[in-house]
Specification:
Blueprint (H helix, E strand, L loop, with lengths): L2 E5 L2 E4 L4 E8 L4 E10 L6 E6 L5 E3 L7 E6 L4 E6 L8 E11 L2 E6 L3 E6 L1
């Protein structure tokens, strides 16, 4: 049973930092993709930051220079350091990972963690 568990969300003031964590647990062979998405009320879910299978990183234009994705492979954990937060960053943030389980690639999602940035 694969699980992705996020933590670190909360209510902060504009300009403050926040770090999200996502622990991936369960039986799987490899991790092809790890990333963070977010969904604000009334909007579609969007990719915020991700590691590709080649190890490179992708960021949404709106967070470049403010957010940093990192990982600890030994702990199967991916982080999202968010600096200089803005009210428009308010959303539910989801961790996602594409894992190879018994030879099959499957995308898994965390339950989401709320980030609220007050002005």
């Amino acid at each position: 049973q694969v699980q992705l568990v996020e933590s670190g969300g909360g209510l902060v003031q504009a300009g403050a930092p926040l770090r999200l964590s996502c622990v991936i647990s369960g039986n799987f062979f490899t991790i092809n993709f790890m990333g963070w998405y977010r969904q604000a009320p009334g909007k579609q879910r969007e990719l915020v930051a991700a590691f590709t299978s080649g190890g490179s990183t992708n960021y949404a234009d709106s967070v470049k220079g403010r957010f940093t994705i990192s990982r600890d492979n030994a702990k199967n954990t991916v982080y999202l350091q968010m600096n200089s937060l803005k009210p428009e960053d308010t959303a539910v943030y989801y961790c996602a990972a594409e894992l190879v389980v018994f030879g099959t690639k499957t995308k898994y999602w965390g339950q989401g963690t709320q980030v609220t940035v007050s002005s």
